[in-house]
């Protein structure tokens, strides 16, 4: 019972969200988790995604899992209609999800049918394992991460920014390295993947 919308760049495909959810987004709320971006120099994509949600009429509940208490995370996730995780460093994101217990909270909500929206790192982290993305994301930014097992909520491996600068070369290299071993799903910034098994 999952309802998942995975993008490379949410701001570029946000107009499709209401159709996928089959409901009005006006005055709905989204738990907006931008933690993956905290270790990156460029973070403009986070503001683009935040603006996209606002333009859709959603109320944004900011949630930085790196510094929130477990109880506050539980409250925000419970009170929000949707969960969104932005782009950034996937390894740092996974480290913080695990360290805080947010991984289990979010997984539980997704398995109970709460719609989940991922953008780039927020899409990758749902895969069975995130080791394949090392050419794109620096694993050294997650020194406390003991292994690369993802949340394992999907049975494929999203590969964002497939034909988008500055990631074209590295994304194609990842695909070449892994396509024969893993179910790699390349998406560019104008594409998205939906999982709807309700």
From TrEMBL:
Listed Gene3D superfamilies: 3.40.50.880
A Gene Ontology BP annotation from the UniProt entry: proteolysis
A GO molecular-function annotation: serine-type peptidase activity
Pfam family, one: Peptidase_S51
Keywords: Hydrolase, Protease, Serine protease
Domain of life, source organism: Bacteria
Family to which this protein belongs: Belongs to the peptidase S51 family.
Record-given protein name: Peptidase E
Phylogenetic classification of the source organism: Bacteria, Pseudomonadati, Pseudomonadota, Gammaproteobacteria, Moraxellales
């Amino acid at each position: 019972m999952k309802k998942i919308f995975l993008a490379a760049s949410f701001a570029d495909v946000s107009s499709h969200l209401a159709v996928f959810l089959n409901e009005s987004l006006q005055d709905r709320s989204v738990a907006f988790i931008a933690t993956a971006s905290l270790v990156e120099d460029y973070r403009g994509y986070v503001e683009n995604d935040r603006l996209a949600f606002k333009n859709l009429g959603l109320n944004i509940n900011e949630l930085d899992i790196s510094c929130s208490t477990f109880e506050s995370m539980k409250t925000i996730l419970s009170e929000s209609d949707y969960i969104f995780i932005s782009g950034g460093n996937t390894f740092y994101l996974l480290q913080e999800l695990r360290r805080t217990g947010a991984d289990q909270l979010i997984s539980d909500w997704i398995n109970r049918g709460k719609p989940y929206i991922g953008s780039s790192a927020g899409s990758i982290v749902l895969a069975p394992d995130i080791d394949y993305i090392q050419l794109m994301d620096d694993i050294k930014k997650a020194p406390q991460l003991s292994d690369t097992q993802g949340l394992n909520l999907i049975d494929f491996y999203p590969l964002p920014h497939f034909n988008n600068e500055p990631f074209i070369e590295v994304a194609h290299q990842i695909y070449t390295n892994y396509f024969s071993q893993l179910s790699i799903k390349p998406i560019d910034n104008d594409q998205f993947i939906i999982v709807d098994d309700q």
